[in-house]
Amino acid sequence: MTNLVLVDASVGETRACLFDENGLGLELAIERWSEAATRAVRGACYEAKITRVDAVLNAAFVELGVGEPGFLPFGKKGRPTQIHEGAKILVEVTREALPGKGPNLRVLMNQTISKATPSLPQRMALPKQATIQPTDRSGREKIDAAMDEALQSVVAITGGGDVCIEQTRALVAIDVDTGSAQLTGGKFNYLAAQTLFRQLRLRGLGGIVVIDFAPMRSKNEQAALKVAVQNMANNDPARVDVLPLSRFGTLELLRRRTGRSVSEILLDKTGTKTAETRALEALRGLENEGYAQPGAQLVLRARGDVGRWLATDSIGWQAAMVQRIGPRFELDAHHTKQRQHWEIIPK
């Protein structure tokens, strides 16, 4: 059975998820309408302008005309002769902007912008045999479940135990706990490593990762785990550099990032879903009910920040929704009695 990529092109947001042959989520990608004019995506090409050359960093800062200024490293060969302040060059985005950091770029020498910006699935690290298909409602629910999994701080390991994953400004900290697992030491840590490598990819996490494995009794167990982790790192589509286990039983690795993590897109700084995230969930709910109840008049009730975001309609969602389910819905953006952030009711 081949790997499957489900693509959910809903109103306001496109989501794609790669699932393995067992139905487990491997990688998520998200593209929002609200960021279309303000964010440079990986693989996109631009005619850009050099605004500053920094000899200390051996790089240049580049104005793309969309989003934050880009960062163009020169590498070991140093600054090309045609790179100077004010120069116009062609560049390609190699890593999207991260919180507090602009996108990374590479220069396109002697080329013209001829290729189209890659689609969302094309920007994912997909195996050659992957099947890409648009999703129905059941597929949308599978993507929802993968999204929920990617936001959980604690993930269970088959047979008992769990891993706790916390993303901080400086690094990703992972704690491995055997819990009630019958396996201990190296065998349990092997299962934990399989889980955490899938989770790192699913969540889009990278940078410095520190893993506190369960205690191991022998050096042979430690050596076997190191080999296993290196093999898993080699199979990761992102570049992963692994350091030896420390004498405290922790392992450090560096996983290359190509974009924001799922939590950085969906959550605010307090770890709560943003108003836009909940509003887009509401729009998917409205669309689902529109298909489930043909001809029914529907009301989308929303409160607080979610209602205000929907009422502003900065992305033109109402016109788009009319194209999907017809003009048979209305927005109640000031409903204050309901407990949930939004709900869909018949009129």
Polypeptide structure, described:
A six-stranded mixed beta sheet has the order 10-11-12-13-15-14, covered by helices on one side. Helix content is 26%, strand content 29%. The chain is globular. The mean pLDDT is 93. It is built from seven helices and 18 strands. Strand 1 (4-10) and strand 2 form a beta hairpin. The chain is α+β, with helices and mostly antiparallel strands. It has helices at residues 137-151, 185-203, 219-234, 262-266, 275-292, 304-312, 317-325, and strands at residues 4-10, 13-19, 25-32, 45-54, 59-63, 70-73, 88-95, 104-107, 131-134, 154-156, 162-167, 172-177, 207-212, 240-242, 250-255, 298-302, 329-332, 342-346. The chain folds into four domains: 4-37 and 119-135, no CATH class; 45-107, Nucleic acid-binding proteins (OB fold (Dihydrolipoamide Acetyltransferase, E2P)); 152-261, 2-Layer Sandwich (Translation Initiation Factor IF3), CATH 3.30.110; 267-346, Hypothetical Protein Ychn, Chain: A (3-Layer(aba) Sandwich).
How is the topology of this model organized?
Elements: E1 4-10, E2 13-19, E3 25-32, E4 45-54, E5 59-63, E6 70-73, E7 88-95, E8 104-107, E9 131-134, H1 137-151, E10 154-156, E11 162-167, E12 172-177, H2 185-203, E13 207-212, H3 219-234, E14 240-242, E15 250-255, H4 262-266, H5 275-292, E16 298-302, H6 304-312, H7 317-325, E17 329-332, E18 342-346
Parallel strand pairs: 1-9, 12-13, 16-17
Antiparallel strand pairs: 1-2, 2-3, 4-5, 4-7, 5-6, 7-8, 10-11, 11-12, 13-15, 14-15, 16-18
